[in-house]
Amino acid sequence: MNIIVVFPNMEHAKSVRSILLKNGYTVDAVCCSGAQALRAANDLDGGIIICTCRLTDMVYGELYEYLAPRFAMLLIGSNSQIQERETEDIVALGTPLKVHELLQTVAMMAEISMRKKKRRKQRPKTRSAWENRLIHQAKLLLMERNHFSEEEAHRYLQKRSMENGSGLAETAQMVLSLMDSEL
Q1: Statement to judge: residues 102 and 134 lie in one domain
Q2: For 4-43, what is each residue's pLDDT tens digit?
Q3: Domain boundary residue, one of 76, 100, 122
Q4: In what order do the strands lie in the sheet with 71-77?
């Protein structure tokens, strides 16, 4: 699980990082500003941002807006600041911060993040119109030149796709370019 800690006070950020490290978490970045956090987040494929309400260059809401949807945010602030938060998607902990609450919350967020990631991987990817057109053209070419039925052409593309470890559209493009070069 990727974790970025963002506090305007570097000492506070380092103490949160050390708590997480002592309890088996990996902290990918410790930052003072939202811009630093965004740069660090761009190199990662999702995770958790742990931050305070005010950073050196922006407030948590701005940071949340700029983050990719693969990131979850854990906001740490006073009870009044937390109650005024703008979105319910942000998980919040009040100060004074209790170590066990921080660890339990991070564990819960990590579990939710892993489930979302798993669901995203299981969901079939939708093809663009261009990819569908490529596949259709490759099938037509196979049907014309090799006298395949549409089902046979589709199965042929699927088989080649699986053998090559590539997508169906990419395989269709290879078939089209190979058969065009034979002309």
Answers
A1: no
A2: 999 999 999 999 999 999 999 999 999 999 999 999 999 9
A3: 122
A4: 29-31, 3-6, 47-52, 71-77, 91-94
Final residue before a domain boundary, out of 91, 122, 153: 122
3-state secondary structure of 70: coil
Distance separating alpha carbons of residues 160 and 138, to the nearest angstrom: 12
Q: Which domain CATH number covers 148?
A: 1.10.10.10
Query: Residues, the chain, total?
Result: 183
Q: Cα dihedral angle (52, 54, 57, 61), rounded to 10 degrees? A: 80
Residue 112 to residue 55: CA distance in whole angstroms:
26
Confidence tier at 139 by pLDDT (50, 70, 90): very high
The CATH number given to whatever domain includes residue 83 is 3.40.50.2300
